[in-house]
Amino acid sequence: MSDSVEKLNDFLPLSPDHNAARLTALKKLFPDLFSNDGRLNVDELKKIVDPALVSETERYDFRWYGKTASKREAFAPSRAALVYDRDRSMNPAKAGRNIIIEGENLEVLKLLSSSYRERIKCIYIDPPYNTGKDFVYSDRFAEGQRPYWEQTGVTEGGVKVDTNTDSDGRFHSNWLSMMHSRLLVARYLLKPDGVILLSIDDHEYQNLKRLMDEVFGEENMVATLIWEKGRKNDARFFSVGHEYLLVYAKDFQELKNKKTVWRQPMPGASEIWEQYLVLKEKHGGDFAAIEAELSTWFSGLTDKHPARKLSRYRRVDKYGPWRDRDISWPGGGGPRYDVIHPTTKKPCKVPADGWRFSKPEEMQRQIDLGLVEFRKDDTEPPFRKAHIKPVPDELLGDADESDEEAENEEEMATQVRGSYFYAQSQVAVKYLKKLMGGKLFPNPKDHREIAKLVDYVTNGANDDIILDFFAGSGTTAEAVIELNRTKGTNKQFILVQLPEFTGDKDAANKAGYKKISDLTIERIKRVITRVQKEAEGLLPNDAQRQFADGLGFKVFKLAKSRFPRVEFAPDPDKTEPENIELLKRYIRDKEATFHIQWEREMVLDEVLLKNGFMLDYTLMPRPEFTKNEVFLAKDAHKESLICLDPNIAPETVDVFKTHPDQFFICLELALNTTKKWNLKHHLGDKLKAF
Q: Fewest beta carbons within 10 Å, which of 345, 378, 398, 612?
């Protein structure tokens, strides 16, 4: 009886056969089921079916105490809810998808995994570093047991801070388990061409790298960046002033398939491009006319103008302004083959160092793209074109990656970011201190640097969603706002922050911020207020004024479900039939008191989120339903009719005779057997009763 009450429905994946294509597809979906050598770990697959099928010691390639439990916790379903906090939101009508969520981030990620699956373009996280202090993530939010707040050591309102010291014996294990479960869930949220960036220091870099190789797949690693923040002259041996940024793609092959190229502009490049667009509008496809006016424009620039150094970009073709580049193999010793001149039909002279491309097929591909410019005859080698905006197809061939000319030449209009960058940490500290009126948060990240990184890996796209589930002081949200303000994009942010106590002696606590999440919310409010104040004197139709007026965000809190929870325990002294009757009575009592707990707006958020709706959904009353209050819920990806009345009228059921294509969500208790059968008959699997 007890087992039947506790049992959860399992969704069992089909066991793959020994076909290479199927194994490749399985690894793409679930890389954590494979060992580091690429082999399917059958025991890991069995655990999905039933963990009891596998009895083993922790012996996998990369193991630590608690790994199995952290994986099980990651994929356990959530019964929690997100509750809208109107009082702490700012301009909610203009929030769009900008959301700040206060709560334990593993549970929040689970709740987002239905609605936001494969809808997040970029994740940036700066997780707590494993220093032996301030370890606050307990991975215990289980309804039907002790409340969340009690499990974390305090009453509701804040989270107790524990320690994770070397003497604990599980110094690395505790931290790895915390990260493992969250990364497993976070991976599902990323778009197929999404990217995750993780800040980390020396303490756990090696372990985090191995963990990411397992969860995301080693083949999806993009780079490890080094962020130098300044020298510490009080260091005894070496000044360790840097941190790392691990960059992984959800699916590196997907980036290649989409011909994705990441580049950042050189100073002055955008001005040249804007001038080109003006001339293109004027002259259309007359490249000679565009070139003539572009040359005149360059001649009129002052020596201090940033575009002056890029004046070689005065030639124009269908891809825009370009300049010539060498077509020989870097370093010498390159391949030699015939390249036929299109006019003379004779082989062109081969450069002394050999051709830039290793195979004739790649050379021909570049020629077909229009990226090779031939001279008037075959007595001289042709040259390559370097465009002010990179041509994605150009960079997908077999060219040698060690092109020092391309990497080091100062005149490149766009450039790939290096793996090392310098940004002094004190700049961000001073900025946040000024914004908040005191030094309230230790070691904040520089929002300008995060904005640059987000812009770079999202390719300047307009409306991507950026997620940070270790939000801290809210740097990522300000980075997104700054990026939208300067680049005219419309990216949205989702922040998740634990309601961790700031500590009685902390400056933040004394300033009135009892929880870090309070500080997170207040920072973004101040940023928005500042942007709006700066735009006050602008005209209503000014782009910056419209941007400022459109800023806002919604706040949600992690909480217990608003629906009654089954907490029935069979009486061991009673028979099975007697316990069944007790269970029925328990359910009747729950149903009878359900309407007393009813808060429709809060329940709507919970129901729609768990049915795949994003939190920026809209509701519209449907007048054709006269006996029940029925709404059309709609977001960017789906729509459904929904009714939360405790009783569905027969007339409402009849309406669906003429609306068989509509999805309908309602309460299970609102339907008797006849109504449910009729709705099933009209709607089929489009009915969702809960």
A: 345
